[in-house]
Amino acid sequence: MKIEGKEYRTIWFENNIVKIIDQTKLPHQFVIKDLKRVKDAINAIKVMEVRGAPLIGATAAYGLVLAIIENNDQSFLKKTSEELINSRPTAINLKWAVDRMMKKLSGVNSNEILKIALNEAKEICEEDVKFCENIGISGVKIIEEIYNKKKSTVNILTHCNAGWLATINWGTATSPIYHAHKKGIPVHVWVDETRPRNQGANLTSYELNEEEVPNTIIADNTGGILMQRGEVDMCIVGTDRTLSTGDVANKIGTYLKALAAYDNNVPFYVALPSSTIDWDIKDFKDIPIEERNSEELSYVEGLDENNNIKKILIYPKKSKAMNLAFDITPAKYITGLITEKGLCDASKEGLGKLFK
Ligand code: MRU
Q1: What is the pTM of this model?
Q2: Dihedral over Cα of 10, 14, 16, 19: its sign
Q3: Closest ligand 1 atom, CA of 250?
C-alpha cells in the first residue's frame, strides 16, 4: 500500500539486511530501519518496531535468515528460534512462522541452508499478501450488501491496527475496506484510538489517510454511543490468536466493542489469515495474555510545539498502573470470521468446514 504515493511493504530483504518500517516512529517520522542480526529482529518484535500478528511472524522468519548469516550452526538456530517464539506471547503467528521455518532448516548442514531459509521467509510473506488480498475479496461483499440496502456511506468501526502495517500488505480488517474504497463504495471508518499505544490513531488512521479512505479517530469509549445512535453499520477487527472454537484474542478493548455491537445488533466481524489459528488450545483461559510495561500507560509521546517528539508523564507519580495488552472475545459475540478461504461462522463447525 502507499505512503506519500509510493508503494511499500512492511518488511523486505536487501543485501543480507532485513528492512522494516519502524512503527514506533509513526505517524510523525517515516524511518526505514535495518535489522542486521537476529537480536535486532528479536528486539524489533519486543519493542514493537514491528507489530501485528502476521508481521511479527514474518519478522521472526527473517530473523532466522539473519541467524544463519551470523552463525550457521544448528544449536544457535535452535536457541534463537526459541528466543523468537518467546519475544511476544499472545500472537500465535510467531510460533507458527518459526515452526514452519525450522521444519525446513532442522538438520540441514549444507551451504544450501541460507537459500532454503530465504525462500521460506519470502514465501511466508507472499502467502500473507495473497491471504490478506483474499480476505478483502471476501469481506468486500459484506460491505457491498450493506451499501446496497443503505445507499449511503457505510460506517465501519475498527480497533487497534489490523491494517497493512500489521501484515505485509493490505491488512486483515482493513483489506475489505480498501477493496470497497477501490470499488467506489463510499466507506467511512471509525478508528478507535486504542490506548495505551494508540495503534488506531498512530497507525490505522495514518495508513487510511495515505490511501485517502475517510476516517475519524474516536476515544476508545466512544464506540458504544455511536452504535446506539445507529452510526456504526459494522465492526471489523483483527486477531492475534483464533481458537478452533471461534473465540479470538485481540487488542485490549476488542471484547467491550463486541459486547456493545451485540447489544445494538451491529454485525461484528473478525478478519484473519489461517496463520492466526491455534488448533491446540481449547479453552480461551489458556491463551497467554501479554502484560506490558505500565509506562506505556503513564507516559504519552507526541509532537511538541517545535515539532520535536517528546515523551511526557500524564499520571500521578505515585500511582500504580496495569497494562494488559489483549483480551478475549468469545465466539458468541462474533457475527462471522473473514478468512482467506471465505466467510465462516466463529465456531468449530465453521472453521472446520473451511480448514479441514
Ligand atoms: O500489540 P499489537 O499492536 O501487535 O496488536 C495488534 C493487534 O491486536 C491486531 O489487531 C492483530 O495483531 C491482528 S493484525 C492483522
Answers
A1: 0.97
A2: negative
A3: 8
Distance 328 CA to ligand 1 centre (A): 13
Greatest Cα pair distance in the chain: 64
Tell me the mean pLDDT in the region 175-187: 98
Q: How does pLDDT run across 105-134, given as a tens digit for each residue? A: 999 988 899 999 999 999 999 999 999 999
Contacts 24+ apart (CB under 8 A), 8-13: 9/125, 9/129, 9/168, 9/169, 10/50, 10/55, 10/58, 10/164, 10/165, 10/167, 10/168, 10/169, 11/50, 11/55, 11/58, 11/59, 11/62, 11/125, 11/168, 13/62, 13/65, 13/118, 13/121, 13/122
Residue carrying the nine cell digits 535468515: 65
Fold of 2-127: Four Helix Bundle (Hemerythrin (Met), subunit A) (1.20.120)
3-state secondary structure of 147: helix
Residue range 214-266, pLDDT digits in tens: 999 999 999 999 999 999 999 999 999 999 999 999 999 999 999 999 999 99
Residue 276 phi, psi (nearest 5) = -100, 10
User: Hey, where are the domains in the chain?
Assistant: 2-127, 137-354
Please state the separation of Cα 28 from the chain's center in Å: 20
Amino acid in the structure at residue 242: T
Q: Where would I find the H helices in the chain?
A: 38-46, 53-70, 74-85, 93-105, 113-150, 174-183, 199, 205-210, 223-228, 254-263, 295-298, 348-354
- CA dist 160 and 234 (Å) reads 16
- 302: which strand partners? 310
Distance 135 CA to ligand 1 centre (A): 16
- Residue 345 designated active-site: no
34 SS3 class: strand
Q: Which residue's alpha carbon is nearest to atom 8 within ligand 1?
A: 251
- Please identify, in words, the CATH class of the domain defined by 137-354: alpha beta
